[in-house]
Amino acid sequence: MSATAVAPARMIVPASERRLKNRTSLGQTVQNTLTMAYRGLVKIRRTPEQLFDVTLQPIIFTLMFTYIFGGAISGDVASYLPVIIPGILVQTVITTSVVTGTQLREDMDKGVFDRFRSLPIARIAPLSGALLADTLRYAIATTLTFAMGYIMGLRPEGGIGAVIVAGLLVIGCSWAISWIFAFFGVIARTASSVQGISMLVLFPLTFLSNAFVPVDTMPDWLQGFVNINPVSHLVTAVREIINNGVFGADAWISILGAAVIVAIFAPLTVRAYMRKA
Predict the structure, then answer these.
(1) Is there a contact between 80 and 74 (Cβ–Cβ < 8 Å)?
(2) End-to-end CA distance of the chain
């Protein structure tokens, strides 16, 4: 007779003696983030109207601001393009990051994030994945802004490589800024309030900057604010990169500012999300 293998009995550990993991590894966090980012891309694919702002706004704003202010500020459109395209780019992409907070609030209101919170995944994944998926929106807005500038006559002196570097810089900084609006999305009561608060913050920062007009044409008391405005540093960095091929001090200041924003608002957002979700 042949011997029959008997599987060893498994001991059942009582619930009171079990040790549950409350932390995830870096690898699992990255994997969960990418999964949630893929969910965001599927969501965009199924509702393409979400891309209307990043497709129409760069085209309309570039045409409008260039032909309205070009002659008055630089004498002609061709001379104004190296000034206005970086400004339009920064303004458009940063404004687009507001959508992150509003969509986050809408998902939380629908109970989607309650389900995510119950899953054995990294706590930050639902947030970081949504923000990572939104980088596609920033990339589309960046590409269209540069394309419109090229159609209208912009020829960056730094070359195609400088354009790519400038685009990546703006996308990275906008991703960092989106953590601020994600925080608003978690703590606010409605999606409309998130949009209202965000625009109240962004409009002064974008229009009280060097994005559209030279700083030396402003009153002295206003120049002080414009010179320390982080949007002005980012716009100047993009101009130096695409027009001169120089990755200067303003670019490093923008990167440092983006890192500080993520270091502050990512933990705040996750903590608020875990308390409120």
Answers:
(1) yes
(2) 61
CA angle 184, 187, 257 (to 5 degrees): 35
Report pLDDT digits (tens) over 121-148. 777 788 888 888 888 888 988 999 999 9
Q: Is the pTM of this model over 0.90?
A: no
Closest CA to 181 of 68, 84, 124, 104: 104
> For the chain, how long is the longest CA-to-CA vector?
101
Residues 136 and 44 sit within 8 Å (Cβ to Cβ): yes
Q: Put residue 217 in one of left, alpha, beta given phi > 0 → left and psi -120 to 50 → alpha.
A: alpha
Q: In the chain, where are the structural domains located?
A: 49-276
pLDDT per position as a tens digit, 78-118: 889 999 999 999 988 888 888 888 888 887 888 777 777 77
d(CA 27, CA 32): 9
Amino acid letter for position 144: L
Length of the chain equals 277
Nearest to 50 by CA among 3, 96, 12, 108: 96
Write the DSSP assignment of the chain as a string of letters: -PPPP-PPPPPPPPGGG--------HHHHHHHHHHHHHHHHHHHHH-GGGGHHHHHHHHHHHHHHHHHHHHHHHSSHHHHHHHHHHHHHHHHHHHHTHHHHHHHHHHHHTTHHHHHHHSSS-TTHHHHHHHHHTHHHHHHHHHHHHHHHHHHT---TTHHHHHHHHHHHHHHHHHHHHHHHHHHHHHSSSHHHHHHHHHHHHHHHHHSSSSSS-GGGS-HHHHHHHHH-HHHHHHHHHHHHHHH----HHHHHHHHHHHHHHHHHHHHHHHHHHHH-
